[in-house]
Design goal:
single chain; 398 residues; Rossmann fold; Leucine-rich repeat, LRR (right-handed beta-alpha superhelix); 2 domains; 5-stranded parallel sheet; 23% helix; elongated
């Protein structure tokens, strides 16, 4: 990690407290240069390395920024060269007995959070700077900058591109473009050029899981995402995608959710070997094609709330563990499921099934059957037999 700090003061001539801060940062082992820069002379470095910035900003007695600094800071923060940088902001002003800290309700802090919202690694220190606090603040800055960061450059670039920050879980390497505050996807309605740029940034970010629900995407919109070989799971709910295109685009994924896409036919002939979980609930599926010589092995399948009357099930898919065919007009389970010795859960809620096949009671690992809203149609003897065999029966709420 580079041990350099670019230190800038909002004063045209640095004060004694600025100089003390610089001295203590150097004593911490940071290279801050020979002189403290000024905001009015700020220039971007040509280096491509992630940079550390410290801005010392004077504020009014009412804890507001100087108007001349606001425009400069907006220009700095919006520049693409700031992406991935770490920024620490130190405010200096009168430190009266009741006003020595920077509080959430202070105008300056609210403005700064808005100005630097595209820079993930931005810290606004709580303690105001003066001669007495310079050493303590230098220690806090050093601690912040010594904390390892990852992927901030890519997240900053996405924020600049889309206007808001996607959710990123670094431990799981999971990214979601759904913005809960706005109730929409950040990708909804964006241009094809921005989708291409997003795909290039994501390739560098290398996520394991991707959520692009509610993006109103069509097949052509997700085509640029086919280069994401790092993906293991993808959520594609509430779009306008075909299953065939989704399977060919995300051929490296083990887990695919494509709920509520208006799909009428489930053709899995283009599925690739990694695929083991497929969630295709809330579509309009009537026909299903799972080839008997398929080279993938499903372990989890959800077809809840479709229009399926018959479920063809090849013997080669006997390693299935959970299957949900609830809310379909299906009248019977396929006999081939009798060979599914790993089956743990079967969802039959709101189906037209009136009796359970005898083989269902001999599945060695079966733990639960959802019989919500069909419990009254099933023979009471089968209900008792299932309970006697230790199978949990999920029923409609009382």
């Amino acid at each position: 990690m580079p041990r350099k700090i670019r230190l800038f003061s909002g004063l045209r001539t640095p004060s004694h407290s600025d100089e003390l801060l610089n001295f203590f940062l150097q004593r911490e082992g940071w290279n801050t240069g020979d002189t403290i820069g000024t905001l009015e002379n700020f220039e971007f470095s040509k280096t491509r390395e992630k940079q550390n910035f410290v801005f010392v900003l004077p504020i009014f007695g009412d804890n507001d920024l100087l108007l001349e600094h606001t425009a400069v800071l907006e220009s700095i923060s919006s520049h693409c060269l700031m992406a991935g940088s770490r920024v620490v902001i130190v405010l200096k002003g009168d430190r009266h007995v009741n006003d020595e800290f920077v509080l959430e309700q202070h105008t300056a802090k609210a403005k700064l959070k808005k100005i630097f919202h595209t820079i993930e690694a931005t810290s606004i220190l709580k303690t105001k700077l003066d001669q007495d606090t310079a050493e303590r603040i230098a220690d806090e800055i050093s601690s912040i900058l010594n904390t390892e960061t990852s992927n901030f450059r890519e997240l900053d670039l996405l924020t600049q591109l889309l206007g808001d920050r996607p959710f990123w879980a670094p431990q799981k390497k999971q990214i979601s473009f759904y913005n809960e505050a706005r109730g929409i996807s950040l990708l909804q309605g964006v241009s094809s050029e921005k989708i291409d740029t997003t795909a290039r940034i994501l390739k560098t970010l290398a996520p394991f899981a991707l959520e692009i629900n509610n993006s109103h995407f069509k097949n052509k919109d997700i085509a640029p995402l086919s280069q994401l070989s790092s993906l293991k799971a993808v959520q594609l709910g509430s779009n306008n995608l075909s299953i065939e295109f989704a399977l060919s685009t995300f051929k490296y994924c083990r887990w695919i959710s494509i709920a509520a896409n208006g799909i009428s036919s489930l053709d899995l002939s283009l599925a690739h070997p990694p695929l083991s979980s497929l969630l295709a609930q809330k579509n309009n599926i009537r026909d299903i094609n799972i080839e008997s010589n398929a080279n993938f092995t499903l372990k989890r399948l959800s077809l809840y709330r479709n229009k399926i009357e018959e479920l063809p099930w090849p013997k080669t898919q006997e390693r299935i563990e959970t299957i949900n065919i609830g809310a379909n007009p299906i009248k019977r389970l396929p006999e081939q499921l009798a060979n599914a010795k790993n089956l743990r859960f079967i969802g039959l809620a709101r189906t037209h099934i009136k009796t359970l096949p005898e083989w269902i009671f001999h599945l060695p690992l079966l733990k639960e059957i959802d019989i919500s809203h069909i419990e009254d149609a099933l023979p009471s003897s089968q209900i008792k037999k299932a309970l006697k065999n230790g199978i949990k029966l999920t029923k409609k709420p009382a």
